[in-house]
Amino acid sequence: MPSPAEPAPSPRAVPSPPPASPVRDPRLDRLALALGATVTALHVAYGGLIALSPQEAYYWTWSRRLALSYFDHPPLAAWTIALTTALAGEGERAIRLAAALHSVVFAVFLWLTVRRLFGSRPALVALAAAFSVPLFGMGQVIVTPDAPLLSGWAMALYFTVRALDLERPRWLLAAGAAVGWAVLGKYTGFLLLPQILLVLALDPRGRRMLRSPWPWLGAALALALFAPVVAWNLQHRMASFAFQTAERVERSGFRPVLVGRFLALQAGLVTPIVLVLLVEAVVTAVRRRREAAYRICAIFAAPLLVLAAVISPFHWVKGNWLAAAYPTALAAAAALAVERRGWRWKAGVAGVALAAVASVYVHLVPLWPALPFPARDEGSSGWRELAARVEAERAALGPDAFVAGCNYKVSAELEYYLPGRPRTWSSEITGEHGLQYRYWFDPEALRGRSGVLVLDRREKRTCLRRAEACAPLEALPPLTVRRGGDEVTTFQLWRCRWAGLP
């Protein structure tokens, strides 16, 4: 004890112990790699068992018409599908190999990052949780622009962490390339640039790197890789940029009910316990921001979470929009659970187990119609049945007959499942915006031809001017699709001789 003449030092004068180095455990590392390989193999096998979802079929149509970019999103999902189908054929499994490819990249770099930040045990826990939640579990099967976004996001995170750990700013050039990869998948990837800058600015090692050319060369490389998307937009009057910004703002309005839908959707995709643990982990990471590992987790997770929460009363926040916020939230949650082994560990085990059950259930729904599930929301049902019916009607009209859907979903599914995979048309034939189909529309190739027009009753207010565009327009018997005893939807069909619109 100090003598009375020597007062005890204040708590502020006592230096904090340096943070313990992340513990590496080769046994746990091998277990993580075995888990990843097993889950990926199961998802690849599963990918050939169910019909394509409408979004997958739509992105497959993009891959048949390779371009610098597309109306809805940047091109990397379509480019990846083109690669996997060139190597493995046109089957459902071959298309979904694109999702598996990006998922492997995502899982490997997520695991590497968490291991570098917190050690082998949290890395294994984070990886197991990621594989368990339905959002990422189905993401290993269903190919969307989120797949390249997440793989690029995970790589950018890892290379940034590696640059800081080794104090080698050259790794930021790799981080810039990963950002370019992410933004070629989805525009959300641009959040990575300010996040990486903030990570560097708040760390003494990073501030030294900012005085070197490497961070700025990395940013320049990211922008250079994004150049094809800019070129496409310049060729098409900035259509995609406007669609993702100004047009979304125009469709926004204050509707508090959307907040409940936003929370319910996230709870369904991530499962309730895991969602609560992830949000709590991000809040804790913000509070522990003096620790570099938790600060990085907060910076890569909190902005997107806050942005989604802010816009949720004004605009429908789709379930997948928050996917990029969850990797580092999982990292922080896993580290906290392993570190404290209290209620977080018990809740985490229960939450991951519940998530795994939910994920297995979601995978079984398309295979087992007896399982309870909202029939209207089961996206893979009925497309082969519809294609068989449309093919019969098309054959009756002759070899020159066209097929058109009243939205991109019907059009894309029919293009994939009709024999011979013919070109299809969408709602642009009735004067509406067929999304990417608008840019493939050639009125002169269609004028005067007869064909089959198909409307899915789940999609409201489409093909409203069909009677003007088709002369004559002849109704055909509708097709009702059922899942078990429940109605999925009814497809309305017409014979149409396309005359165009005034």
Automatic annotation (TrEMBL):
Residues 1-23 are annotated as: Disordered. It holds the Pfam family PMT_2. GO terms for biological process: lipopolysaccharide biosynthetic process. GO terms for molecular function: pentosyltransferase activity. The chain crosses the membrane at residues 31-54, 66-88, 94-112, 124-143, 171-202, 214-234, 263-286, 293-315, 321-338, 350-371. Residues 1-21 have a biased composition (Pro residues). It comes from the Bacteria. Residues 72-232 form the Glycosyltransferase RgtA/B/C/D-like domain. InterPro entries: LipidA_mod_glycosyltrf_83, RgtA/B/C-like. This is 4-amino-4-deoxy-L-arabinose transferase. It is a multi-pass membrane protein. It comes from Anaeromyxobacter dehalogenans (strain ATCC BAA-258 / DSM 21875 / 2CP-1). It is found in: Cell membrane. PANTHER family: MANNOSYLTRANSFERASE YKCB-RELATED, MEMBRANE PROTEIN. Signal peptide: none annotated. One of its GO terms (cellular component) is plasma membrane. Keywords: Cell membrane, Glycosyltransferase, Membrane, Transferase, Transmembrane, Transmembrane helix. The lineage of its organism: Bacteria, Pseudomonadati, Myxococcota, Myxococcia, Myxococcales.
